[in-house]
Every structure is written in C-alpha cells, then in structure tokens.
C-alpha cells in the first residue's frame, strides 16, 4: 500500500489529503477506485502508464488479497459457530445458498 499511496501522490490525486491510513485497506481501495480517473501526471517527466498503470495493477493485487482474507475470515466464523453447535442451515443466508444441499456442495477451506 505504500507504493500505491506514493503513486497517487505523484499522480496528483486531488483528494490526497483524504487518502486513508495504511491499516484501512478497504477504504484505500475505495478511495483509489473513486479518484483513479482524476490522476494527472506531468507527461514530460513520467509516462502515465508508469503511474496509473502500476497503480491499477497494485489495486488488483490488493483486491485479491482482500478477497483471500475475507474467505479465511468467513471460514473462521463458520468454524466458530459450528464449534458451539450452530447447524449448517444457520449459515445459508450468510453463504448465499438457499438449501442445505447447495451448502453441502460449497467448498470448505
């Protein structure tokens, strides 16, 4: 995230003073998504692809990281519930399934 923040500063993010703290990954991703089209670079000094292109690649990597963390966190929540006796069907809505059969086909960790 350090590099992404740096690229947005170099890119002249008009809302850079509102750039979220490093420990707020989702907020960072939302901010960079919202302001990506507003970045401007001095083309005499730097190729826009070097700033905006690299920033887009980093954003994609961070979204993937967030997805992986969400999957692991969801699994831990399910395991915690199951450990205290919550039936599988209690997780149907949270897992976006409508039947216990669909739930049993969902990959688990």
Q: Your description of this structure?
A:
This protein has 109 residues and is an all-alpha fold. It is built from four helices and no strands. It has helices at residues 2-10, 25-35, 48-83, 100-105. α1 (2-10) packs antiparallel against α3 and α2 (25-35) packs antiparallel against α3 (48-83). The two termini are 27 Å apart.
Helix-strand blueprint:
Blueprint: H1 2-10, H2 25-35, H3 48-83, H4 100-105
Helix pairs in contact: 1-3, 2-3
Using brief descriptors, characterize the structure shown:
0% strand, 109 residues, mainly alpha
Q: How far is the first residue's CA from the last residue's CA?
A: 27 Å
For the biggest sheet, the summary is: none
**Annotation, overall tally of beta strands:** 0
The low-pLDDT segments are: none
Average pLDDT: 87
Compute the CA-based radius of gyration: 20 Å
Structural class category: mainly alpha
Order of helices and strands: HHHH
Shape: elongated
The tally of helices reads: 4
Helix content: 55-70%
Give the DSSP E fraction (strand runs of 2 or more residues). Answer: under 5%
Concise structural overview:
The protein has 109 residues and is an all-alpha fold.
């Amino acid at each position: 995230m350090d590099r992404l923040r740096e690229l947005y500063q170099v890119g002249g993010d008009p809302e850079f003073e509102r750039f979220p703290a490093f420990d707020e990954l989702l907020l960072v991703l939302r901010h960079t998504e919202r302001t990506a089209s507003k970045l401007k670079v001095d083309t005499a000094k730097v190729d826009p692809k070097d700033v905006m292109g690299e920033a887009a690649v980093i954003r994609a990597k961070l979204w993937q990281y967030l997805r992986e963390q969400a999957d692991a966190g969801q699994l831990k929540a399910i395991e915690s519930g199951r450990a205290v006796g919550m039936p599988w069907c209690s997780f149907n809505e949270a897992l976006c399934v409508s039947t216990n059969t669909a739930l049993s086909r969902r990959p688990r960790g």
